[in-house]
Amino acid sequence: MTIARLMAEISAREADLIALTQDMVRMPTLNPPGRGYLEICEYLGNRLAKRGFDVQLIRAKGAPGDSDKYPRWNVVARREGAHPGECVHFNGHHDVVEVGQGWTVDPFGAELRDGRIYGRGTCDMKGGIAASIIAAEAFIDTFPDFSGAVEISATADEESGGYGGVAYLAEQGVFAPDRVQHVIIPEPLHKDRICLGHRGVWWAEVETKGHIAHGSMPFLGDCAVRHMSALITEMEESLWPALATRETAMPVIPEGARNPTLNINAIHGGEPVQEADYTGLPSACVPDRARMVIDRRFIAEEPLDEVKAEFHALLERVKKDRVGFDYAVKDLFEVLPSMTAKDAPVVQAVSGAISDVLGAAPEYVASPGTYDQKHIDRIGRLKNCIAYGPGVLDLAHQPDEWIGVQDMLDSAQVMALTLTRLLTDQG
């Protein structure tokens, strides 16, 4: 009967769940540059403090992106139970990406229509944060005698690597295995899926070099853009076809991400782009430099050193065959793949909860992109971590992003039932 009452408690909090999600979406916590971080952390901290949580606001001083103008704020709230036991931590990122073009609704209006809340960050991932808070509050009200602790955090900068958020907190010991034993990250992977981990990533900036000259006499110079074009041609002819032949055993979704991938994230050659109010023409120069940022996603079966070596070998092939070709490579960002075992305690608890709430066994997946599990795993040394939350992954970063209210309610029930399995004797 107590479990049934817990499920009913969550259903009865639908209006609160909607309002909480809308309030957060209406705070434009855009990253970059990192706006509104303190506002949303104070908002959530005040709510959870009223519910008996011990609340800390933590600024990631000195982290990438942190400045007095755009400080990297995080909130961590902990509610101790009546008896000793393990801690279950729900972690969500409060930052959202740029709006982009193509919206038909106000990106920060949080409009509720036909059972959906629309706006930037609804799906990725303020709806997931709201669902975890409702789940935790309902669980505590229904099982005030629970053992252990419940923690909720809202953290910065996941959309730009997480170094001002979970990475910083992990370095401070927040995710140390002696104080936190289970972590659930409510990323939008669908309410009937458990995300066990993610592929690896290597970002690098590649520069091709040339020689500046007058644009009317390009034969006196050496065009770095043409060198970059030769590099891309070699990538088309050899690298992309090679990546298409490799496939991981990890259950990565969507299907195309079972292969390693490479994206050209940005490219620029020649003189710098002028300010928007500049009305003149560009100067007549041969570009003496061109830069490209690559985003290489690699599978668990590819060691990182081999990923880098393969790309450097490609560069050397171009250099051997092309007169004047010279280059430089700068590493920007790298993350190893992460994968939690299916028999891990948090996986088993969430799996059983999904079966009870939705009436079917979950699908086990892995993410094509990295998320903050990487820092909990590599820095926090905590392996018992998954992503589970409401929302359709394909909507993330898209115009007219939305989250379904029923999906949030169902996921909140799964999260609350997970807490009973891990922190009470009714699991």
TrEMBL record:
Key words of the record: Cobalt, Hydrolase, Metal-binding, Zinc
Biological process terms in GO annotation: lysine biosynthetic process via diaminopimelate
Catalytic activity: N-succinyl-(2S,6S)-2,6-diaminopimelate + H2O = (2S,6S)-2,6-diaminopimelate + succinate
The protein's annotated pathway: Amino-acid biosynthesis; L-lysine biosynthesis via DAP pathway; LL-2,6-diaminopimelate from (S)-tetrahydrodipicolinate (succinylase route): step 3/3
Enzyme Commission number: 3.5.1.18
Keyword Metal-binding belongs to the record: yes
Cofactor: Co(2+); Zn(2+)
Gene3D superfamilies: 3.30.70.360, Zn peptidases
Statement: the UniProt record of this protein carries the keyword Aminoacyl-tRNA synthetase: no
Domain Peptidase M20 dimerisation: 197-320
Superkingdom: Bacteria
GO terms of molecular function: metal ion binding; succinyl-diaminopimelate desuccinylase activity
PANTHER family in alphabetical order: ACETYLORNITHINE DEACETYLASE, ARGE_DAPE-RELATED DEACYLASE
Annotated family: Belongs to the peptidase M20A family.
Record's protein name: Probable succinyl-diaminopimelate desuccinylase
Organism: Rubricella aquisinus
